[in-house]
Structures are given as C-alpha cells and as structure tokens.
C-alpha cells in the first residue's frame, strides 16, 4: 500500500497557521487539550517539512519526533548535529513525495509550513486534510491556503468539536 500524504495542522478561524511574524504562541492556550496526536503519530512513517518549520521545532526543549524519519525541504545544509532520522532534500516536490510514498511504511505527515503545504496542495499531492480550527482570529498572518492551485473537491470524513472550542475537521480527496 502506498503511503498517504496527510496535511495535519492547526489553523485560526481566519485561515492562518502562524501570526504575521511566523509565531505560534497564540496556540499555547489550547495546548492542554488532547486532540489525538499520539494516535496520529503512530500511523506516521515520515514527516515532510520546510526549513523554517524545522528550525522553529529545533528551538523546542526536546525533539518531538524521535524515531521518525524527517525530510526537510531545503537548499541549505542542516545544522551540524541534526536529530537522528533527519535528512535534507531539495528539488522537485512531486518527485520527493513520490519517492517517500514508496519508501515509507505508514503515512507521510506534511508538517509544513505554509509554502510547502500550498505547493503540495497546488500540485495535488495531498490525500487528506486534517485541520484543527482554533477559535482565534489573527487578522494577519501566514495563511494555510494560497491563491494558486488547481481546484480540488474534498469530502468531509469527520468533524469533532472539543470542549475548548477547537473543531477538528477531516477531509479526503474525492
């Protein structure tokens, strides 16, 4: 079975992944709720992320993806001591995704950021959208969905409201 590409992300009501400076501190008040991350990660064999997101995650106290293959889309060398399983990749996104689909046991988490997500969506590389809509409006920020891309229909598979106002939405291409 070929690995699916799953875009799994938190987004403000007005469609932003991050604030105008790229920050995600606005998510902190919602961290106490369990949204099913452990179950999600158990089905993931590889993560595909952009360089800015990788650099942001490297600033966390602990590496959150031990034992996972993490492919960082970048044209620059990675830090001198990246976590185990982290590798750099450059070139055609569709070719990288095709290679990962074949090499990966489990699914591929399209971790982002926005440029990677928008490029993957525009090229029709994403199989599922798993979006957690956070009850915050940022007004300005880095948007998940860009203006470019091929129109594509999505089928709602699940909608899960949480007591803190977050809504998890799961869509499948179709």
Detailed description of the structure:
By secondary structure, this protein is α/β, with parallel strands linked by helices. The chain has a single domain (5-173), classed as 3-Layer(aba) Sandwich (Dihydrofolate Reductase, subunit A), CATH 3.40.430.10. The protein is 20% helix and 34% strand. The chain has an eight-stranded mixed beta sheet with strand order 5-4-3-6-1-7-10-9. Strand 3, helix 2 and strand 4 form a beta-alpha-beta unit. It is globular and about 40 Å long. The model has no long low-confidence stretch (mean pLDDT 93).
What's the topology here?
Blueprint: E1 5-12, E2 16-19, H1 37-42, E3 44-50, H2 51-58, E4 69-73, E5 86-89, H3 93-103, E6 107-112, H4 114-122, E7 128-134, E8 141-143, E9 154-161, E10 167-173
Parallel strand pairs: 1-6, 1-7, 3-4, 3-6, 4-5
Antiparallel strand pairs: 2-8, 7-10, 9-10
